[in-house]
Amino acid sequence: MHLNYNNLKIGRSISFCLLLLFVTLLNSCQSPDRANKQDQVKKPGEETLIRVNKNLVKNEEQKIRDFIKRYDWTMEKTESGLFYLIYDTGHGKPVGKNRAVTIRYSVSLLNGDTVYASRKTGPLTFLPGKGEVPKGLDEGILKLKEGDRAKFIIPSHLAYGLVGDAQEIPAKATLVYDVLVIKVK
Question: Where are the domains of the chain?
Fold first, then answer.
């Protein structure tokens, strides 16, 4: 009997690969009890986070509703949580995705402090839907047309979130935008 060293080497390599595959599969399979225990460990923490987040959103929405009531505005609310009011209607082209829009604006906090305004920085031009501005402004501006004036109340999760903008907008800030659409290309 004549043994070929190359055949023996290939046979060992295949055996080793099969053994490695078997061990990997065996380790990746968990018993249902072990998987359930892991889920039970994760769920209480996840449920707590979900509950805390729901409370934060609920509290922020109540502050927004109190603010709206104070000014006696009649605003609509989108599914995402954006509040908006179109208080002067223009007659120009509608804003659309991939259509550059130029606006005059002021941005303030619920306490009335103005943090940004186009009278200081100049008008803002951007492409809606491209993430160039806060998500809430992107969403709201798509409801307008050239010449429209609107107010948007943007909850923090649609604005600058938990961190703010590291300049003028603090963490978890609700923003009040007053905008005028001056041009749509």
Answer: 74-184
> Rounded distance, CA 133 to CA 147, Å?
20
Distances (CA, A) of 21 to 11, 18, 34, 145: 15, 5, 22, 61
d(CA 185, CA 183): 7
User: Can you give the pLDDT of all 185 residues of the chain as single tens digits?
Assistant: 444 444 444 555 555 555 555 555 555 555 555 555 555 555 668 888 888 888 999 999 999 999 999 999 999 999 999 999 999 999 999 999 989 999 999 999 999 999 999 999 999 999 999 999 999 999 999 999 999 999 999 999 999 999 999 999 999 999 999 999 999 99
What amino acid occupies position 111?
Answer: N
Count other C-beta atoms under 10 Å from residue 153's C-beta: 27
CA neighbor of 176 nearest in space, from 97, 64, 39: 64
Class of domain 74-184 as given by CATH: alpha beta
What the block records as the tokens of 81 is 């949580």
Interatomic CA distance for residues 115 and 106, integer angstroms: 8
DSSP sequence for 63-81: HHHHHHHHHT---EE-TTS
Q: Where are the alpha helices (DSSP H) in 72-96?
A: none
C-alpha span between 120 and 132 (Å, rounded)? 20
